[in-house]
Design brief:
By secondary structure, the chain is an all-alpha fold. The longest helix has 30 residues.
């Protein structure tokens, strides 16, 4: 037995093939041979295929069954609409354009809707072809419902897919580790590289690339948004704590205020973890908020003690406050996600904007936010609609006897880039040719013996659905050609010419799909990611400049409004860029060893800029002295210039060097202002390091030993290449 023959992917494919085969053939054979209802048989056959194979519905058997149950009414509506609009080619094509775009664009709602999009489109495709027979609509719906119910039963009882740990359980486990680490830092433990590595590894496990699709909180509702926000903030907590174990930590007696705050952070993380597991009520964030407020007050309190005024201690306090701020973000996000709280006195509106709107409003915002030519979800929906509309027009105009196969080829073989479409189409054409030859031999040898087709269909369907998803489009199309030939030969008498028709229809669909791939955004997400990342960096440049001006210049109400608008724009740019990056990775995007821009570093730069723009104004302790203002202006001018230049992604990247905060500036500044200056210095250096890694280069100078974002340059460069 070859090594890896029983790999998890193959086992999953075989189990799903068994479920779909059982559901399809039970309904097909019962309707065709026991009830003598061929129309019911066709829909009973294709419904499990549409929702079980063509639609990669994520989740366990119970989750899949629930998804199928929820989409059955939509499938009924699409079938009825397709049956009605099949009256003319023009009406069918118009319906295909509208429905193709609408259903495809619903992928913006999350992984479950995105998974069922191909299957739902198949119901309209199957119903909108000649002959125009509205009188058969009841039989079509009977077959659809029968196939759907059989699939639900098989998903639940026949080798059901196992459940995966929910994302909230991963967050809870990571928070337990964060609580232990915070207590260790409070007790004076440090200089432990192995423990730091463990913390970072646990943070990486929270990235969506490491989480099964069914567990990813990518939906538009408040719970999904809150869990995603909590996961991102938990990763920051772990990274920031990891940095403390990469240097000698001050003893608890050196600064008892830091130790007190860290102990409260540990308690908050542990309580939030218990709430995520459901073992206790969702904790309020008032205790941690009070500790943070007390710590900020102590940090800004004048002191004659030189040790308390030293840059080393100021930076350490900044690090501890950064950890506490991230922990507070986690606790608040969990409160919104699972506690249902939609208002809180300490809740920052700009970070937790999703807490207030209703669920319909959040769903609307998700759609309208992607209703732009710069959204890859919008581009995919347009590409799909145009491809299916063109295929329906060709099939109707040429009066193809099995034009359904043309649209099915467009639906299953279309890809988001021209190169990927050509590769897929080429393999599918070869596979279909070989499958047509095998089907021709079967049809020629069996003749009119339907019992032969009935016997062959069972193993052929199982093998096609078990091997096709793993072996690639050539195997999938070849085996599926054999399946449809064996199935349709039982419905009406057929000759070897049926295999020829199948081959021609698939090749026609391949040609249409290839043309759409070439004409409609042929570069896929790569070009869009470049544009959206550039727009994000430009938005970050303006946000950073306005935020620093708010901190060091005289108050200005107009500038404050401009800063809020810049923060909203940067958040929108980040969402669009994240969507493009997610698709870019599915297209086989840049790997760790590839050259070119590091797109994840650009996304990280935007995320860190918005976090600083939120927290720094809340930690401001007063106007800065003139020499500090000059330093801040010079630093932000260099950084914003570099951000604007980085938005062009020049070869070799951008190297930026922000002027270090001079020790004499810190010592001469009023005690209340010193912490703010250290915070600004850390934020700007963090952004400069992120920006340098966008081009894959090295910083012009090494960062200071202590970084305000909880990472050193080496970690920044290595982690920026990991999939978030």
């Amino acid at each position: 037995m070859p090594q890896g023959f029983f790999s998890p992917a193959r086992v999953r494919a075989a189990r799903q093939a068994a479920r779909v085969t059982a559901a399809s053939l039970i309904g097909f054979y019962t309707a065709l041979y026991a009830l003598d209802q061929p129309v019911v048989a066709v829909y009973a056959l294709f419904t499990p295929i549409a929702l079980g194979v063509l639609s990669p519905v994520p989740g366990s058997g119970r989750q899949r069954a629930r998804t199928v149950l929820l989409v059955l009414p939509v499938a009924v509506a699409l079938t009825a609409l397709g049956t009605t609009l099949a009256v003319t080619t023009a009406s069918a094509v118009a319906g295909m354009l509208v429905i193709g775009f609408t259903v495809s664009f619903a992928a913006a709602y999350g992984p479950a809707p995105a998974g069922v999009v191909p299957g739902l489109l198949l119901f309209y495709v199957l119903a909108c072809f000649p002959p125009y027979a509205p009188q058969t609509l009841p039989e079509r719906l009977y077959g659809l419902l029968a196939g759907g119910v059989l699939l639900i039963v098989c998903e639940r009882v026949l080798l059901p897919a196992p459940s995966s740990p929910p994302y909230r359980a991963r967050i809870a486990s990571a928070l337990d580790l964060a609580a232990e680490a915070a207590l260790s830092v409070a007790q004076g433990h440090g200089d432990d590289r192995e423990r730091a590595r463990h913390l970072r590894d646990e943070g990486r496990a929270l990235r969506f690339s490491q989480v099964p699709p069914a567990s990813r909180p990518t939906g538009a509702g408040r719970t999904a948004r809150g869990l995603a926000h909590a996961g991102s903030a938990t990763r920051r907590v772990l990274d920031q704590l990891a940095r403390t174990f990469e240097k000698p930590a001050p003893q608890p007696g050196d600064d008892p205020h830091c130790a007190t705050l860290l102990r409260e952070v540990a308690a908050a993380c542990a309580a939030t973890a218990d709430a995520l597991r459901g073992t206790r009520a969702v904790p309020g964030q008032e205790m941690l908020e009070e500790e943070v407020a007390d710590f900020v007050a102590v940090r800004g309190r004048p002191s004659e003690d030189r040790a308390e005024a030293s840059p080393r201690l100021l930076r350490h306090r900044t690090d501890v406050l950064t950890v506490a701020a991230s922990a507070l973000t986690v606790q608040t996000a969990v409160t919104v996600a699972i506690g249902g709280r939609r208002s809180s006195p300490g809740m920052p509106h700009d970070q937790f904007w999703y807490a207030q709107p209703s669920t319909p409003r959040l769903l609307t915002l998700r759609l309208t936010g992607n209703l732009t030519l710069r959204s890859v979800l919008f581009q995919n929906a347009v590409r799909t609609a145009l491809g299916l509309g063109a295929a329906r027009l060709v099939a109707g105009t040429l009066d193809l006897s099995h034009g359904f196969w043309v649209l099915l080829a467009v639906l299953t073989l279309g890809r988001t880039t021209a190169g990927a479409t050509w590769s897929t189409v080429r393999s599918a054409a070869v596979g279909t040719l070989l499958g047509a030859l095998a089907a021709g031999v079967l049809l020629f040898g069996a003749g009119g013996a339907t019992v032969v087709y009935a016997v062959v269909l069972v193993p052929a369907m199982f093998v096609a659905f078990a091997v096709g998803p793993i072996a690639g489009p050539a195997w999938a199309q070849g085996l599926f050609t054999l399946v449809v030939s064996a199935a349709f030969s039982q419905l009406t008498p057929a000759t070897w010419r049926l295999a020829e028709v199948r081959l021609l229809d698939v090749l026609t669909g391949c040609t249409i799909g290839l043309l759409c791939g070439v004409l409609a955004w042929p570069a896929g997400a790569r070009a869009e990611l470049r544009r959206s990342a550039a727009e994000l960096l430009r938005a970050v440049s303006r946000l950073v400049a306005l935020t620093i001006a708010d901190l060091v210049d005289a108050p200005d109400e107009a500038r404050g409004d401009a800063t809020e608008e810049a923060l909203r724009l940067a958040r929108h740019r980040l969402r669009i860029a994240e969507g493009a990056y997610a698709q870019y990775r599915t297209e086989g995007g840049r790997g760790p060893g590839d050259s070119g821009p590091d797109w994840l570093a650009a996304l990280n730069c935007g995320s860190h800029a918005m976090a600083g723009a939120h927290w720094l104004p809340r930690l401001d302790h007063g106007p800065a002295p003139p020499d500090a203002v000059r330093w801040a202006r010079e630093s932000v001018a260099r950084l914003t210039t570099a951000l604007d230049r980085a938005a062009t992604f020049p070869p070799g990247g951008v190297h930026v060097r922000t002027p270090p905060l001079p020790t004499e500036v810190i010592s001469k500044a009023p005690p209340l202002v010193r912490p703010s200056l250290v915070d600004i210095d850390g934020w700007l250096r963090n952004l400069a390091a992120d920006l340098t890694t966008v081009g894959g280069g090295d910083a012009d100078e090494p960062p200071p030993p202590v970084r305000d974002d909880g990472r050193d340059t080496r970690r920044t460069q290595s982690r920026s290449r990991d999939l978030r």
